[in-house]
Amino acid sequence: MKKKTLLIAPAIVITALLFTALTYYSGRVSEYEIEHSRLTNSIVRLEDKLMKQVSAIRYKLPDSTWVYNRQKERVLLASVAETEPRLCLYADRFQCESCWQAELGSLAFYQKKDSGLPAPALLAANYNIREVKLLAQRNNTDIPMYVTEEIPVLQHIARLRKPFFFVLEPGGVVSSVYFPDEQSITSDSTYFTTIARRYLKTVAPTAQSTGKQKGFHIPEADIDLGDIGLRKKQEVVFSLVNDTDTACDILDIRLSCSCMMLQSMPQRVLPGETGEIRVDIIQLSKGPFSRTIELRTSSSDAPYMLNIKGNVV
């Protein structure tokens, strides 16, 4: 009897220790997931803020803005993007040459990576045509290069003496000005991905006599998660459908509770396409719950209300 007691007692102690360790570990994993989701949420919001700031910059070029191509032909800068937008890199003799050459390499890299990007071009300020030809040979690039003096409308940006990207739109409009972040590849990737999505060629959807809802809409704005586990991460996905012939910009999104973490969302949903808002939700107390997401878009003055409910067991 004593032997059995001596054997059972250590087993009980070991089992208790294992249970305690497992409970502690599960709690630590949940805390890590919550913190990771919060960091992801912060990154998504920062990326969205970056692209909103980039999108706010627009300039109209004077009609007399001339440049020279490598064939020494004098052409209007606006004619470079006469029918389609161009993704341009602005380089200046007074900039760090190795810096803008590195960005030229980035431009070539993202052009190969994403076929949806507008055709590239390099605008070389304060260089001569011979130098530009040598630079093209030295960098082994066939990206079209244009020589110019400083462009007055861009002078206040060029004075920073840093290379920058911009989109030259048809009609001579400079938009989406972006200075590459030397410390963050993520910001560069966000910029190029957004530009590709924003200027991607799309075909207007063909009208069909179906009973489907038209216009910009969210097919399932109310989601019931049912029973979910305590401190268990749940992913919720809302689809954004644009059945119009114009792009819809996502202007703002607000989450009603810190238990929800924004994972991803589009800046714009193009005509005929569907975007997704992905949100993680982690509940820290048992019982029924209800959460709301307020979404503002360019398609409506009134916000869209997205609802999530469930029961924590």
What does this structure look like?
The chain has 313 residues and is an alpha+beta fold. The chain folds into two domains: 145 residues, Glutaredoxin, CATH 3.40.30.10; 99 residues, Immunoglobulin-like (Sandwich). 32% of the residues lie in helices and 33% in strands. The protein has five helices and 17 strands. Strands 1-8-7-4-5-6 form a six-stranded mixed β-sheet. The chain has a five-stranded mixed β-sheet with strand order 10-17-16-12-14, with no helix packed on it. The chain has a four-stranded antiparallel β-sheet with strand order 9-11-15-13. 25% of the residues are buried. About 4% of the residues have low confidence.
Order of helices and strands: HEEEEHEHEHEEHEEEEEEEEE
Major sheet details: 6 strands, mixed
Average per-residue pLDDT, rounded, comes to 80
C-alpha Rg (nearest Å): 27 Å
- Helix percentage range: 25-40%
Q: Which CATH-level-2 architecture of the largest domain?
A: 3-Layer(aba) Sandwich
Give the strand content. 25-35%
What is the number of helical segments per DSSP (H or I, 4+ residues)? Answer: 5
